[in-house]
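Support case: user asked for a sample of complex input and structure output to validate their parser. Sending the pair below.
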Amino acid sequence: MPTAAGGGVVAPSSRRSLAVAATRGYLPAAGDAGDVNAIATADLRKSYGDLTALAGLTLDVPAGELFGLLGPNGAGKSTTIRILTGQLRPDAGTASVLGVDPAADPIGVRERVGILPEQESPPSFMTPREYFDFVGSVRDLDAATVNERVETWADRLAYGAKLDTMHTDLSRGQQQKVMITAAFLHDPDLVFIDEPLANLDPIVQEAVKRFLREYRDAGNTVFLSTHDIDVAADLCDRVEIVHEGELVATRRPAALDGDRLLDVFLREVGADASVGADAGAGR
Amino acid sequence: MSADRAVLAAMVREEWRLHSRLFGGRRFAAFPVFVALVGGLTAWALGTTGARTETVVAGAHVLVALFGLQTGTVGLVGRDAMRGLLGETTLVVFSAHTLPLRQRRLLGLFLLKDVGYYAVLLLLPLAVAFAPLLPLAELALLWLTLVWTFGLGLCATVAAVSLATRGRPGKVVAALVACALGAAAVAGLPVAAATPYALFVAPGITSAVAAAVPPLCLLAVAALAYDPEHEPPARTAENAYRAWRRRVPAWDDPVFVKTMLDVSRSAGGYWKVLLSAGILVAVSAFLVSLAESVVGLRVLPGVAFGSILGLTAFTTYNWLTQFDDPTTYATLPIDTSAVFDAKRRAFAVLGLPTGVACYAAAALWRGAAILDALAGLALCVGLQAYLFGLTVALAGTRPNEFLFDTVLFAGFTLGVALPLVPVLVVGFVAAPLSAPLAAALVVAGLALAGVGHVLYGRAVPRWRERYRE
């Protein structure tokens, strides 16, 4: 696969990205013989007792897209990611991730994708270096590859001095850097990232954004879940707005003509649009 | 003061909701009833078999003091620990960061809440359980001295932890005081006269004042020494992961290695596993001497200690599952069954040897004969394997949830009692041990290990499904 996680060498053309993706055998997108889908879901449903988290979610994410799932807290974003990565079983509906059904083969999906959870999965008393060795051995990476990629990521996110500090003693921002590195360590074709910029300082946020664009340009797919409209508008090729477990709007931020993503968001989730106008944020 | 009352009320309400949400309100509310029933049955059985009431009451005070010591570890909450350990589940404590509340005062209220909570939920039914042995008037006094004893244990831990926040000098002072107390007890000085138990034995002003002095002194030490801003420097470590994997290459098990590293680097290291087992050794020594006083015969130390020390499986498994569960690995291609397998391996490496070492020490100390020692060894290993399987079956990787979940706790108690009581009875009455009976006990040990294996094998697929619901 194209290198992005390790060396950061990428091809700039998204047209080429689709061509690369087409060789990987993902599902063809309905109605477009030229596209391939890294992710496809149909009528996904999930409830927790009386609470409906997903009420029939259907979406396609073509390979090579930086896709954003935008929604307020509790809209169903994290549930979607957990179903697509095999952590949860849906009540109904189907899903395909890189051609694999996550409900039937959760381990197979997680072997192929990278996941950055919203709540950090703490490596507890291990140091980052040990944790990366742990992730490397789980993912069958040789030690030299792990070392090389860890050094690259530590430079990129500026935490080389913390590689031997116990995870429990790292700041939340440093812990987030560790989890970002772990998500990309095996150089996956597709990553699911939930609020990737949380707790990061502006310089590192820019480094992560730059990397994500390069990663996408290399033909890989990003599924980004966020409630941060600025992040979605700045990064994503396409944004789907989810509200109460359903998709309510789709937009391409680059093609928004005068309308701001914030306005669309407030309109679709039923909030008072004047509040958003006063806030003056978003695009 | 009104702020203190509001915080205390919020803490109690939050504690109730936390447990009732975890286990269901009725299951949680039924816990005191269950304690009273089981305790009452035990007291009745001990009374019927001729145990001296004062011995049983003394035992209850010892156990409650140990429980207080353990509960006092909440005093370990330094600034970061308070956020990490309690912040996620205890919003009121977490509020110290955002509200104008002094952390020292908040910790004091938290401890006060714990005393009140355990006084009603655990110690009141425990005192009521003594109804078959004591007149009604003494039950109230017993409750008072049990609560006092719990508070004493709590204050002792909090004082020690507070001293520890002052660095090495504080730790040295704490160690010196502990050693001095131990030496005084060994030298035969009347240390117990300054405890709540002495107040129960001889109620009066003098004994009440004597019992009040130690907790008040400990509280004063805690208040003076506690440094809420104490934060140890960030710890670093050489990469031990690869070295650990090389030690057990055949298993090729990253989660096992992570588990061992977590246990070794968390507070107390591997010693805490041994310490937990050591407490059980002390409890079993007390029970064995109690049994000897009841039946008037020398019990079989191998069988008795081997059976009781099988319970170390539960405390060890608790440590092994303290720092992760299958959801920790949800972002990696690690199946739930692999997490359980790793815990089983860690248990085999850490838990079984610890239990056997404690058993060997106890058997040597009490001079177990060879047949008795072999039977006890088989029972110790077999019961550990059985309890491991039983705990996995009932609680998965969260054995702490036994606490206050009446149904789970009752199931666990029954599951433990079914094999433990018969072999303990043999240990108490079958001396000297015959060869056929020793062989039967060895077979029983092996059979228990087999049952544990089956329980484990059936439980893991069930937990795998449950974690994905």
